[in-house]
Structure formats: C-alpha cells, structure tokens
Amino acid sequence: MITGLDHVQLAAPPGSEDALSAYYEGVLGMSRVPKPPGLAARGGAWFEAGRVRLHIGIEEGFRPAAKAHPGVLVTGIDAFAARLAAHGADVTWDDALPGHRRFYSHDPVGNRLEFLEPLC
C-alpha cells in the first residue's frame, strides 16, 4: 500500500536557518519553500528540487546522527561533487555500493548526506 516517499526530515539546532538556506539553496541548488503558517512558528526550513523534499526541523539539544542520512539521486555526480568541494563542503567518495557511484557530505550543522548516481 506504500506509494512513495513524501519527504525526509532532518534536525538542526536553533538559529541555524540562515546557514542551512545558504547551503541547501546556494550549494545544493534546491529551492526553499514556505512552510504552512501553523508550522512556520516552529522554525526550521523546507527545501525541494524536483520531487525531492527535505524538511529541516529545529531541535533543542541537537546532535547530528553519525550514520543516518538521506540518499539523494543526482546526475553528473562528478560535477556535483566538484560544486560542493568548490563551496568548501566535504566530499568523501565510497565505492562499496555495486552499480552506483556515490559520495557523502555534511551540511553546515553536521547532517550526513549521501549523493549517488546509478551506473548505466
């Protein structure tokens, strides 16, 4: 009965919205979308690119997860990795997933992100 994934929620510390917007919009190229008024008062930010939606919620006592992460499909992974590196983001390649090229990076608050591109 599951038909898809609506969004992935990550957490962030209070006051980090500007840094997150700079990263998710300026570095990753996503668009910030307005939160519904009833949710906007909670802080955080929502971003999307195509059908990919990331919600970042504010969490007191935030600590980034060591392993948990969204896996984001990309095209032109080499150029995308170069874009992140040019903006000072870490890029750690991993060849352990057969049939894919992938790397990991972290957002400004330490959330781990996986970017992958299937091999044809």
Q: What are the key terms here?
A:
120 residues, alpha/beta, 2,3-Dihydroxybiphenyl 1,2-Dioxygenase, domain 1, 4-stranded mixed beta sheet, 3 helices, 21% helix, globular
Structure notes:
By secondary structure, the chain is of the alpha/beta class. It has one domain: 2,3-Dihydroxybiphenyl 1,2-Dioxygenase, domain 1. The chain contains three helices and eight strands; from the N terminus they run E-H-E-H-E-E-E-H-E-E-E. The strands form two sheets. A four-stranded mixed sheet has the order 1-4-3-2, with helices on one face. It is globular, with a radius of gyration of 15 Å.
The arrangement of helices and strands along the chain is EHEHEEEHEEE
Counted by DSSP, the helix tally is 3
CATH class: Alpha Beta
User: Which structural category fits the helices and strands?
Assistant: alpha/beta
Query: Which percent band covers the strand fraction?
Result: 25-35%
Biggest β-sheet: count, sense, barrel? 4 strands, mixed
Q: First CA to last CA: what distance? A: 29 Å
Number of structural domains = 1
CATH topology, which one? 2,3-Dihydroxybiphenyl 1,2-Dioxygenase, domain 1
- Please, what is the average pLDDT? 96
Q: Which radius of gyration do the C-alpha atoms yield?
A: 15 Å
Total beta-strand segments = 8
Structural shape = globular
Contiguous uncertain segments of 5+ residues: none
Trace the largest sheet across and list its strands. 1-4-3-2
CATH homologous superfamily classification: 2,3-Dihydroxybiphenyl 1,2-Dioxygenase, domain 1
- CATH architecture tag: Roll
- What percentage of residues falls in helices of 4 or more residues? 10-25%
